[in-house]
Amino acid sequence: MVQHLQNRPCGGRYGDIVQAIGNTPLVELKRLSPKPGVRLWAKLESANPTGSVKDRVARALIEDAEEKGAIRPGQTILEPTSGNTGISLAMICSRKGYKLKVVMPANVTPERTQLLKMYGAEIVYSPGDQGSNGAVSLALEMAQADASYYMPYQYGNQANPAAHYNGTAPEILEELDEIAAFVAGLGTGGTLMGVGRRLREELGDSVKIVAAEPMQGEPVQGLRSLEDGFIPPIIDLSLLDRKIFVTNRDAVVWTKRLLDEEGIFAGVSTGAIASIAVRIANELDEGNVVFIVCDDGWKYLSSGLYTTPVDELENLDTTVWW
Ligand SMILES: Cc1ncc(COP(=O)(O)O)c(C=O)c1O
């Protein structure tokens, strides 16, 4: 007898790996939810083909450039990225026949370098102590000096939030009729702007859009402190109901708690976001709280974080991860 499938959309059937991006699972975290009436949901963007939310964005950036006639096969794409967008662009460029050069801080993990090289990308290193801001300014200089590069520039390209407005948000709305709060990390701001705008349009002021922002001087990979002086042009701060600071220690502790208590193997920015999502859940009496699992933990394995007991985590050197 044929058994009825219970998962939607059953994984789907796609013509190639680029088309298989998105349609990620929404998973309830019952053990981390502080109250029975408050349901905590993790949107597993780690289930994308290269393991991060940035697959959606990279596809949107390249397809937007193709639609506008801004790139042609064989052209070199240049992008500053602290990792995930580069890895996603590298996979997509390798499938679509573009060359890719990424500019990233020199202190990234060896896993990131290998993933980029594996998909054929060329890497230009910017000074590690300048973080992602250093990568952005070096890439802008390179693009100004050589007009043959096409720079999608995710920080200022509306195709970035549009990937979430047209993808991530409708997928969440397909599963939940009511959402009390949506929590995501503040990196380029693409996730918060795209999902936030769509949820606000569909659900009005009943949904709170909450950003997890790292403390200044406490870098969390993939996230940025607006106090560092650079506000990505795609960010409209008026869309955010709250912006909550998170310490590096909380990011690390909650990354470990997600693993230990819910079996979610996620990167460090997801720990930061989960800590804020649980804090918001604590303030509510009922409702759904949705947060983004930005990437999986494979790229961070060399940090030793996942096998370190929670009470020893503060001894880890967190300055080299990005
Ligand atoms: C691991 C990770 N977490 C969070 C983010 C933040 O997402 P967004 O750029 O949409 O703000 C990024 C973005 O680069 C990331 O790589």
List its salient traits.
6-stranded mixed beta sheet, globular, alpha/beta, Rossmann fold, 2 domains
Quick summary of this structure?
With 322 residues, the protein is of the alpha/beta class. The protein is built from eight helices and nine strands.
Describe the structure.
This protein has a six-stranded mixed β-sheet with strand order 1-2-9-6-7-8. Strands 3-4-5 form a three-stranded parallel β-sheet, with helices on both faces. Helix 1 crosses helix 2 and helix 2 runs parallel beside helix 3 (about 110-120). With about 325 residues, the chain is α/β, with parallel strands linked by helices. Helices cover about 35% and strands about 15% of the residues. The protein starts with about 25 loop residues before the first strand and ends in a 29-residue tail after the last strand. The longest helix has 17 residues, at about 160-175. It folds into two domains: about 10-50 and about 165-315, Rossmann fold, CATH 3.40.50; about 55-145, Rossmann fold. It is globular and about 55 Å long. It contains eight helices and nine strands. The chain has helices at about 55-65, 85-95, 110-120, 130-145, 160-175, 190-205, 250-260, 270-285, and strands spanning about 25-30, 40-45, 75-80, 100-105, 120-125, 180-185, 210-215, 240-245, 285-295. Pyridoxal-5'-phosphate binds near residues 54, 221, 223 and 267.
